[in-house]
Amino acid sequence: MPPISTPPEIRAIHIKGRSPIAWMASSPDLQFDPSRIPKEAVAQVPEGYTIRPLNVNDYDKGYLELLSQLTTIGTISKRKFAERFDLLRERNESKYCIVIEDLGRGIIVGAGSVIIEPKFVHECGMVGHIEDIVVDNSARGKNLGKLIINALTLVAKHSGAYKVILSCAEKNVGFYEKCGLKAKEVTMANYL
Questions:
Q1: CB-count exposure of residue 94 (10 Å: 0-12, 13-18, 19+)
Q2: 77-123 residue pLDDT tens
Q3: Which of 9, 53, 65, 162 has its CA 20 to 30 A from that of 107?
Q4: For domain 10-178, which architecture applies?
């Protein structure tokens, strides 16, 4: 039997005897270069899942349905999704959208993003704003949420951020404390 050849745009990473995690290096379908996700975050991925940048094809893998478990999405066509994806890809040094895919089902079961904000304070430091953390109801209890927070925190750290911050519902404070965050100050909003 001839060996299976892997297309040049895909490389597999084997971690502790687990199933390979496929990355598409420098693919125009990915929101950012997957090497920006630190290896220590990738090493935490359970068997049967992969963590990677958002892919333009995730529209067909239930990404918006997953986000609708978090908040209102509205009607977003595939074209509108692709246009927004292109905008995010152009700004890939300031916003990183990470997803967790269930490889067996071929669907997105976890997601989150971090926005890197340049500041004047802290000697022109950077702050990571963690946003839109969600894990599918069917995949809860597997520490995927904690994995997403850790991955986004490491992306922010490797981008030069001196801290990460987020806003959450009061009912979720306990979860975020388990992820290493601490309650500080108050978030306020003015919906326009």
A1: middle
A2: 999 999 999 999 987 779 999 999 999 999 999 999 999 999 999 99
A3: 9
A4: 3-Layer(aba) Sandwich (3.40)
Tell me the C-alpha distance between 38 and 52, whole Å: 11
Query: Cβ-count burial of 110 within 10 angstroms (0-12 exposed, 13-18 middle, 19+ buried)?
Result: buried
Tell the residue number behind the tokens 């502790």, with chain if given: 16
Could you tell me the two tokens for 104?
A: 């067996």
pLDDT at 53 over 60: yes
Which amino acid, 42? V
pLDDT at 131 exceeding the cut of 50: yes
Rounded-to-integer distance, Cα 114 and Cα 151, Å:
10
Cα distance from N-terminal residue to C-terminal residue, the chain: 62
> pLDDT (tens digit, 9 = 90+) per residue, 149-158?
999 999 999 9
Per the CB < 8 A criterion, the answer to whether 25 and 9 are in contact is yes
Q: Which SS3 state, helix, strand or coil, does residue 16 take?
A: coil
Prediction pTM value: 0.84
Q: Please state the domain extents for the chain.
A: 10-178
Bridge partners of residue 113, in order along the sequence: 97, 131
